[in-house]
Structures are given as structure tokens and as C-alpha cells.
Amino acid sequence: MLRHVATVGGWTMASRILGFARDMLIAAKLGAGPLADAFFVALKLPNLFRRLFGEGAFNAAFVPAFTAALTRSGQAAAQQLAMRLGSLLALWLALLTGLGLVFAPQVLLVLAPGFPARGAEHFALAVELTRITLPYLLFICLAALLSGVLNGMGRFAAAAAAPVFFNLLAMAALLFLTPYVATPAHALSWGVSASGLVQLGLVWFAAARAGLALRPALPRIGAEEAAVLRRMAPGILGAGVTQLNLAVDVIIASLLPPGGLSLLYYADRVAQLPLGVIGAAIGTALLPTLSAQLAAGRRLRAQRSFNRALEISLALSLPSALALIALALPIMTVLFQRGAFTAADAAGGAEVLVAYACGLPAFILVKALAPGFFARGDTRTPVVIGIGCVVLNLCLNLFFLWATALGAPGIALATSLSAWVQAGLLALLLRRRRLWLPDRRLRRAAPRLAGAAVLMALLLVLLDRLWPAGPGWAGVPVLAASCAAGLLAYASALQALRALDLREAWRHLRRRPRVPPTPA
Known about the structure:
Layout: H1 2-30, H2 34-72, H3 75-102, H4 104-111, H5 120-133, H6 135-152, H7 157-161, H8 164-177, H9 184-209, H10 223-238, H11 241-253, H12 260-295, H13 299-326, H14 328-336, H15 343-358, H16 360-369, H17 371-374, H18 380-402, H19 408-432, H20 440-466, H21 476-497, H22 502-510
Helix pairs in contact: 1-8, 1-12, 2-3, 2-5, 2-6, 2-9, 2-10, 2-11, 2-12, 3-6, 5-9, 6-9, 8-9, 10-18, 11-18, 11-19, 12-13, 12-15, 12-16, 12-19, 13-15, 13-16, 13-20, 14-15, 15-19, 16-19, 18-19, 20-21
């Protein structure tokens, strides 16, 4: 599992680095104003449904079923299941995309209720950009199905590498298509849709090479398909509660003055680096691992895998969160303060980033805790918790918006607080049902990991006071040196406190995985 986490995390890191380059280009061309706000709202709609119907609910229900079929019945049965479900998903997504194209103005009235008050021209621009980006929903959700097939077979590289093309095509469109369309935001929107088609082609080719070329099949709802669909329905909220919380953030942020929504986007992109690299990698690798172990009756091994996933989550999320808090202003300044993005925008974005970073460990723990339910076919429990957290997030958003003067940082803080509640409830229910028993190693490591992260954060604050990073490219070496020093300090503290054996982790990463024979 650690090797799979490293594979997914490595490719996700590459994608996030390219994502920073893309966002730096967007910030320089669009800034943090009305044009950027319109594009980010247009992008939010297909991204939301991608998380819910693609990577979220569908994969949470599909991967355990596909893995069980592959383990018990062989590759042919698993392939038939994937093809039938793929056809059903394609029909549903085509209908959803068509409705979105027709009713885009009405959808935006719900997603961004503050936009009409900004003027008819601003609202019309957001509607136009939404219609351009909507085909991305169809392509990327089908790509998520194929990624689930690859993950269920223990092949993680192609699915993890596919998002790299989102960033490459977005940057290419912004640089080369802008002179031929109305605005840079139009160019970005066309690049988004094109990237979805390219990602779909990549994972289809990878699945075909693995011996599972999926072709259109007559939609048929048998017992296995019905079970996946039943689990998917509640999982739409359970697996995608983070995205629903972010959608609530967009709705509330549309009521802020122009630029507030853009600051939330830029800060969220920075926070998404560790969340994507760590959280998505752990969740992606853990779900098929647990599903296969439970299907084979290896419950003790599943418990060990689950505890090690939580240990890895804490070891990586705690220093990431504290580093983002300690270096929030230098990060926003170095990455984005150029062109149309001003020093005031960087300062405002830093406040939002601190609020998001406070919830980063919770976001990542949710990614590790949820598979404890999904691998056992339970998507109902996360949905009950998810609904409560969405309501809590909405209430906190409204409180911070009208009862305090926090503005955009208050919206981010509400999301972080609701994530902590979600993680706590998931862990509590797993313990009460005896589905998770924290072992001695995890109980011993957790406080030591926190202590090592605090020592690292204190060093980063000191370095920022002594050698502050300036705006633009000149600040990159200073920020990079601070990050390298913090990483070295954290690794040293881990060894000094005996919180994590780095040599053991390295041995696991170098060990060649055993590939079990595929059942006939």
C-alpha cells in the first residue's frame, strides 16, 4: 500500500506543481477580479459533479464491487461489470450535461446567487463560460470509471498521471488561444473541456493495455449493478461532502465584494497541494487494498493497513498544515504577486490560506477514514455524517459572514471546522462498531508526530523573520530554502523523537510488490 501511495502521490505532486504554474499564469492574466470570479464559478460546476458522480460516490461504490468481482470471479466477470456500469454512467452524464447546457442560467442563480447583483454583463459571462466547460463533466467522470478499473487491478500510475494534462492544456490554451477568443477566461474554459477528452483517452488506452478495454454495452441492471447503484446514492453526499462544503463556500462567497471568490480559489489551490498529494493518494490506495483484504477474509491484515494509513496521514498532514500557516504570506506573495495580482491580494489570500490550513489534517483524515466504511459496502453512514457537516458548514458560513467581519477567511474557517467535526464522527463510529482499533504503534506515534511538526513550524517562523521572501521570482530561492530547511528539521525531529522509522519506510518503498495470480 505504501508503494501505491508513493506512486499516486508522486504523480499528483507533478500535477500540483504544474497546477501552481497554471494558477500563477491565471493570476497574472486575470488577477482577482470579476473576470476571474466568473471563470472560477464556471469551473466549479463540472468539478463539483466530477467529485460527486465520478471520483466520489461512483468510485466509493464501484471499486469495492469491481475488486471483489476480480478476486472471486476473475477478469472477464469484472470487465463485464465495468462495461455495463460504464454504459449506465455515460447515459446519465450525457443527460446531466444536456440539462446543464439548457438550464445554465438557473443553475448559476443557485450556485452564485450574488452574481446577478453585479450586473447583467457579468452574469452573462459566467453563463457562457459554464456552457463551455460543461462537456468536461462527461469526459472526466468516464475517465474516473476507467481509473477505478485500473486502481482495482493495482495499476495506479496512468490514472494518477492523467490530471497532468488538465494543467498542460489549460496553460496552452491561455497562452496560445487567448488572441482568438473574447477573453483569457474563454480560452481557459475551452482548454478545460479539451483536457477532459485527453484524460479519458489516456486512461482508456492504459486499461486496454492492462487487458480491460471497455466497450459500449447494453445497459443492464443486474444484482451487482443494483448493489453498486444503491451504495452510490448515499455516497453522493458521503464521499463528496468536502466538495459540497466548497460549493457552499462559493454560494456564500458570491455575496462578497468582487475578488473574494478569487482569493478563496487561489488559497484553496495552495491547500490542495498536500490534500491532493497525501489525501487523494491514501484514499485511492487504501480503498482497493482494504476491499481485497476483507474480501479474502484477512481482517487482521486490514486493521494493520488501516492503522498504517492513519499513521501516514498524520505524519504528512501535520507538518504540511503547520508549514502553510507559518509561511502563508510568503507563499501567496511568491506564487501569485505579479501582473494583475497585487500585494493587497496576496495579504488577503494569506489570511484565507491560514484558515484552510487549520483544517488540512482533518481533510486528509477523512480521506483515510471513509474507506473504512466504503470497503465494507457501507455508504450510508458517511452520508448521514456528511449531511450534518454540510448543514454545519452553511450555518458557520452565515455566522462568520454576518456576525463577524472575517469575510473570505471566515468562509474558509467554516469549512475547516466542519471537516474536523466530520473526521471526529467518522473515527468515533468506526471505534464504536469495532471496525477500527488503534494499535499500540499508532497511539505511540501520534503525539510524537505532532511534536516534530511543531518544532519544524517554529523554525520556519524564525527563518521567515530573518530572511523574508519578496514577491516574484526573486523570492523563489528564499522560499525554497525555507521549505528545505523545514523538511530537514522535521525529518531530524522524527528520528530524535522516534516518531517514525524513516529507514523502514524506505525499505517498504524499495521492496518489489508481490502480484497474486489472477483467478481463472
